[in-house]
Amino acid sequence: MTNIATVMEFEPHGPAGTGLVEWERIDPAGLVSGTPVQRGHIYHEDADAGYLAGVWDCTAQTEHMGPYPVDEFMLLLEGRLVMGLPDGTDIEIEAGDAFIIPKGFECQWKQPGYLRKVFMILDGPVPGDGDNPGLHRITMPDLAGGLAAGGQITDRVDFINAAGTMQAGLRQCGAATIPGLPVQASQVLHVLSGRLTLGSGQGRRSFETGQTAYIRQGGTLHWQTAPDTRLLWCSHARAAS
């Protein structure tokens, strides 16, 4: 029997009927200001790998400068964020921007108001960084720029974590159909333009511009993309047991 991959949608306000639920309070010892209330929904968790993916929102807060505790990919759905760096530089992030913070990177989270995001978190060991520049900056993929049309699918990798188990970037697709493609990593796929259709024995699901698909690692899927489809993607490959 064919192993069928799992496909779901990351609904921007959480699942219908439950939405985002309130989580435990953020430790005030880590805060400069604010009494934030955070809510979220975890669509996929692998506790053994320190892995979470879902949707989160929170009211205003400013944290202390310090090392970021995890590798985290984020797509800001609503609100505004300023990430402060030790040299005094501020990086401004607006709704619609994607960004990745590597584990251990020194920075300060400054959130002036309500914020909502899609996230993928990995809390794993950090090997020696070698010459990986993505570990020494906040990476913000260019979502406006296109990729060279060299074929039906063109990928750009903007970030790889220290362990090589988490990657993020941009994918540009022509009109393409790929049957029975193995799913070798769990993936967040946000449709920037066009349409993505994913099919399995459970049926077909189409994702339009502005929607976020999620695929769990394992099994196979049929992929179909409309012309000029652009996808923001982030993936986590679980180590084989």
Walk me through this protein's architecture.
By secondary structure, the protein is mostly beta strands. It folds into 2 domains: 21-136, Sandwich (Jelly Rolls), CATH 2.60.120; 145-236, Jelly Rolls (Sandwich), CATH 2.60.120. The protein contains no helices and 22 strands. It has strands at residues 7-9, 21-22, 31-33, 38-46, 51-58, 61-63, 66-67, 71-78, 80-84, 90-94, 98-101, 106-111, 115-122, 153-160, 166-173, 176-182, 186-193, 195-200, 203-208, 212-215, 220-225, 229-236. A 6-stranded antiparallel β-sheet has the order 1-20-17-22-15-14, with no helix packed on it. A 6-stranded antiparallel β-sheet has the order 2-4-5-13-8-11, with no helix packed on it. Strands 3, 6, 7, 9, 10 and 12 form a 6-stranded antiparallel β-sheet that branches. The chain is globular.
Give a concise summary.
By secondary structure, this protein is mostly beta strands. Helices cover 0% and strands 53% of the residues.
Low-confidence stretches: none
| Count of distinct strands | 22
Classify the helix fraction into a percent range. Answer: under 10%
- In CATH terms, what is the fold-level topology of the largest domain? Jelly Rolls
How many helices? The count is 0
> How far do the termini sit from each other?
21 Å
Average pLDDT reading: 92
- The helix/strand class is mainly beta
> Rg from C-alpha positions?
18 Å
Shape: globular
Going by CATH, the architecture of the largest domain would be: Sandwich
Spell out the CATH superfamily of the largest domain: Jelly Rolls
